[in-house]
Amino acid sequence: MATGKVITSVAGASAADVNNAVNAAEKAFKTSWGLKVPGAQRGRLISKFADLLEKHQDELCALEALNVGTRFDERYWHVQILRWMGDKIHAKTVETTDKKMAYTRHEPYGIVGGIVPWNFPLLMASWKLGPALATGNTIILKPSEMTPLTALRIADLFNEAGFPPGVVNITNGYGATTGDAIAEHPKIQKVAFTGSTLTGRKILKASAETNLKVVTLELGGKSPTIIFDDADLEQTLKRAAGGIFTNMGQSCVAASRIFVQESIYPAFLEKFIALAKHLTDNTGSPFDPNTRHGPQISETQFNRVMGFINSGKQEGAKVAIGGERHEQEGYFIKPTVFTDVDSKMSIMQDEIFGPVCSVVKFKTEEEVLEVANDVAYGLGANVFTENASRAIRVAHALEAGSVWVNCAQALEMNMPFGGYKQSGIGRDLGQYALDMYTQVKAVHINIGLKL
């Protein structure tokens, strides 16, 4: 676990194990799921599974706290996502002539491979499971090798809910073995992946070299927070802090670049540092209700984040607070705020995935937009202003798949989530996600045309 102590060990799935799971999924798709089961019936099973998640919420939250180090009292909205997905499949009938009719069918691909990361294990699993199952696919789900606990538990709950054998298959293992076997398997028709841009490229390559399986990717980010001088400062401070320090910065939309208009920069920075200090002073166990900041997921990730901190120092950035290991036993890093940064520094260009941010002053809207867009990623962005025209103008100019105005990371289950540029391909959540798990068939029927 993130304190450096071993919790347990689990069996890793080999390529042969993945193949067995695929065979089970194929059998289920052809006999007891897929086009054999009406959407309403699938929806009822999904709803029953969601009921079980809700019933066991305390247990699942405890497992997530052990898995990742997130606070035990954090309640995710995976249940609501699954409920929403259960009954949203629709087709269209198209008017042509009175002698011909045409309609579309949204049909499942068959077997889907879902590969999810370690930062929000259960939530990310629900993002793949919900649309895959609602649209009639069977699924091979691979959780991260670092966070297998909740995935194993929900496998039991799927059985309890009455899902036919083979519809949901959990395969633990490393990316280089289990993940590769999923990405390369010729019977898997679609892979949905959340994780690093580097791994996303490998999955695309595997698709190109095998059966051209459909791939959706939710990848890295380097989100900006832009704060104009007319923003509500107290509200903005809290939301900007949440935008970077939630889950110890281990989020693809972590807003690690905070741009503040120069007239309010000194006041913002002083209070933002105080918020970071409050988190530092309340660092500890995820099971302590007073904890506000936890550990990084692993020693590898701890060293990676510390490497970025050292890089920032070496490149000349100033540490306003933090920048070092916390005294707690385990992989704890003090919330870190850099100032005096250059936009080309590594800490301003690369995804850190830790509690590290840079606070930068700007003068004009045009200036901040140029710098905010000058990264390889385009996943999310936050804008704070009381000027509605400016908010809309800036939101439209930002190169990001999601823009939040006067809030941060405020996802909605019926709104799409995904990235521009190297932040991914396709969308999670909402109707857009469901569309990613079906292939559209157009059916044309002659009811009176004569040759």
UniProtKB/TrEMBL annotation:
Residues 2-443 form the Aldehyde dehydrogenase domain. Keywords: Oxidoreductase. InterPro entries: Ald_DH/histidinol_DH, Ald_DH_C, Ald_DH_CS_CYS, Ald_DH_CS_GLU, Ald_DH_N, Aldehyde_DH_dom. GO terms for molecular function: aldehyde dehydrogenase [NAD(P)+] activity. Coiled coil: none annotated. This is Aldehyde dehydrogenase domain-containing protein. The keyword Oxidoreductase applies. Belongs to the aldehyde dehydrogenase family. Pfam families: Aldedh. The active site is at E218. It comes from Leucocoprinus leucothites. The keyword S-adenosyl-L-methionine does not apply.
